Amino acid sequence: MPRFSKIIFVHGGREAYPEIAAYHQFFAPRYETSEARPKNISTRPDLEKSIVWMIMGFYPQRPLAGLVIHDYRSLSVGRLWWVKDRIKRFCNAVPDVRIFQNEDMRDAMGFSDDVPVCLLPMGVPPFVTDYRATPATSYDCDFCYIGAMSAERKTKEMLDSFVRRYGTSKNFHLYGTPEPFLPERYKAYPNIVFKGRQNQQDVFAALMHARVAVNYFPNHHPHRMQTPTKLLEYAALGLRILCNEQRQSRLTAQRYGLSCLWGAAHDMFAAAPDDLASWPSNEAFDPAPLLWPHIIEASGIAVLLETLSLENSRTA
């Protein structure tokens, strides 16, 4: 029998990681799964028989676990990001497996050892298909955006572009927590509505009543290397999508065959038409390749863990 019967997902708890819920659901039939914070992992009595799956930050010490995974879901942000990533490259402990979202993130971190690597992109939850079953017959807004609204992401570029193009003639609903200056900046535009942060199910329901879903993704580090998760969700819901030009968004659309209207990188609404039904939606798109069970299975991580577990059981 495989030596390892448990997986402990370790993360700081400050960020939302939808992939952790997907990991639990996928691996629960094979392993006992749980979560822990970095400061508490050393107190777990079951480490020797556990796979410790770390959502990566700065972890220079290796837990005394049977198997350790370093999962790089994002790269460093803010000032001196290159210094932070360089420190992680040289000072993080050596794991048994590394996971990256894509080739760009793997190459950016630049590890040169022989640790096995899996590429595990972002996915969408299987329940997204429930919303496709009942297409909207009425609309609450013209444009809808979900995601982070921070100064670091330069969200005001997206909203300034919208104002220049449409003024108050079309409405725009935004879901997420905005930087405080954003509602103040656009208070003269009652058609720009900040709806706040809501759970994923409620946001999906709201998206089904939007004429167009907006995929604004920054063109600076680290976003130019990371998969635009919201683009996947919009496509899986079958929506009509407006994107700004961005390398990862283009690669994602090409990889899965998504239909999008492409606007300029920093002025995405400039060429958007008045007729919001004038370009194809993704209603005919099959979301199966985007669903988390398929994404995780295709990454090869499940097979690799079984192989490493068996190897460890033979040498124990």
Task: Briefly characterize the structure.
The protein is of the alpha/beta class and 316 residues long. Helix content is 31%, strand content 18%. The radius of gyration is 21 Å and the shape is globular.
- How many individual β-strands? 12
Distance between the termini: 12 Å
Q: How many domains in all?
A: 2
CATH homologous superfamily label of the largest domain:
Glycogen Phosphorylase B
Q: What class would the helix/strand composition place it in?
A: alpha/beta
Oligomer: single chain
Mean of residue pLDDT?
A: 90
The helicity comes to 25-40%
Strand order of the largest sheet: 2-1-3-4-5-6
Description:
There is one protein chain. By secondary structure, this protein is of the alpha/beta class. Helix content is 31%, strand content 18%. It has eleven helices and twelve strands. The protein has helices spanning 18-27, 81-91, 103-109, 128-132, 155-166, 181-185, 200-207, 229-236, 247-256, 292-299, 301-315; strands spanning 6-10, 32-36, 50-55, 67-72, 97-100, 117-119, 141-146, 172-175, 192-196, 210-215, 241-244, 261-263. A six-stranded parallel beta sheet has the order 2-1-3-4-5-6. The model has no long low-confidence stretch (mean pLDDT 90).
